[in-house]
TrEMBL record:
It comes from Candidatus Taylorbacteria bacterium RIFCSPHIGHO2_12_FULL_45_16. Gene3D superfamilies: P-loop containing nucleotide triphosphate hydrolases. GO terms for molecular function: ATP binding; ATP hydrolysis activity; transmembrane transporter activity. Pfam families: ABC_tran. Keywords: ATP-binding, Nucleotide-binding, Transport. Residues 2-235 form the ABC transporter domain. InterPro entries: AAA+_ATPase, ABC_transporter-like_ATP-bd, ABC_transporter-like_CS, ABC_transpr_LolD-like, MacB-like_ATP-bd, P-loop_NTPase. GO terms for cellular component: membrane protein complex; plasma membrane. It comes from the Bacteria. This is ABC transporter domain-containing protein.
Length: 236
């Protein structure tokens, strides 16, 4: 599904250049659950933005489902995102003064799906993260941190994406809410075969994945199997 080769990313701020990614290569197969770990500033979000077709690498190639994404126009990239990718951003990016239901429906805006159907899909995605209908008409500033996080995840699921990219989705959650969120990802991965790439600082969270990629100073320093908790649980 994903094949990146020798990707670099250079940010320019005025005259200053900063190399956030320095030659990153890996492949991720359909249906894999991968965690990306690394210190703050190591390039994780930068990598996620490139994998999510939100940004392009300075050099290197990125094939998504056999297609060279670096050759696509902005419009074509937007099509790829709408059809294939669900995002949970580090800052969650919910629209203020907008209800839970509307925030969740957002990725379907230009999909050509009618309003009733968009609502149905939003309700399904909200149910999957444990959000109940008592909150559907709350505005984002009337929600707890954990609820904001769950709405952000619901929004990522609403277009039924084959690839889900989540940046610190359980960052500030209590254990119980964090478990609901991780359980949602696991279910999507195991039952529906969705590919999941999850950025996290917490080894405990990373252990829910099949594979962990460690990144430091814009380079991969380790890439291997996780001592998957769920595998252990399955055999228990
Ligand atoms: N738009 C930008 N312009 C300039 N520099 C940037 C930009 N975005 C990120 N950087 C720099 O690139 C480096 C990698 O940033 P990135 O956001 O990918 O880190 P991260 O691994 O996600 O960190 P964190 O764990 O704190 O979220 C950082 O040093 C950051 O300052
Ligand atoms: Mg980040």
């Amino acid at each position: 599904m994903i094949d990146v080769k020798n990707i670099t990313k250079i940010y320019k701020t005025g005259d200053i250049e900063f190399q956030a990614l320095r030659g990153v290569s890996f492949t991720i197969k359909d249906g894999e659950f991968v965690a990306i770990m690394g210190p703050s500033g190591s390039g994780k979000s930068t990598l996620m933005h490139i994998l999510g077709c939100l940004d392009t690498p300075t050099a290197g190639t990125y094939f998504l489902d056999g297609k060279d994404v670096s050759t696509l126009s902005d419009d074509e990239l937007a099509d790829v995102r709408r059809e294939k990718i669900g995002f949970v951003f580090q800052s969650f990016n919910l629209l203020p003064r907008t209800t839970v239901l509307r925030n969740t429906m957002l990725p379907l805006m230009y999909s050509g799906i009618d309003e009733e159907e968009r609502k149905k899909k939003a309700v399904k995605a909200l149910t999957a993260t444990g959000m109940t209908d008592s909150h559907y008409h709350h505005l984002s500033n009337q929600l707890s941190g954990g609820q904001i996080q769950r709405v952000a995840i619901s929004r990522a699921l609403v277009n039924d994406p084959s690839l889900i990219l989540a940046d610190e989705p359980t960052g500030n959650l209590d254990t119980k809410t964090g478990d609901i969120v991780l359980g949602t990802f696991q279910k999507l991965n195991e039952e529906l075969g969705r590919t999941i790439i999850l950025i996290t600082h917490e080894p405990d969270v990373a252990e829910h994945a099949d594979r962990i990629i460690y990144i430091r100073d814009g380079q991969i320093v380790e890439d291997g199997r996780a001592h998957s908790k769920r595998k252990a649980r399955h055999h228990a």
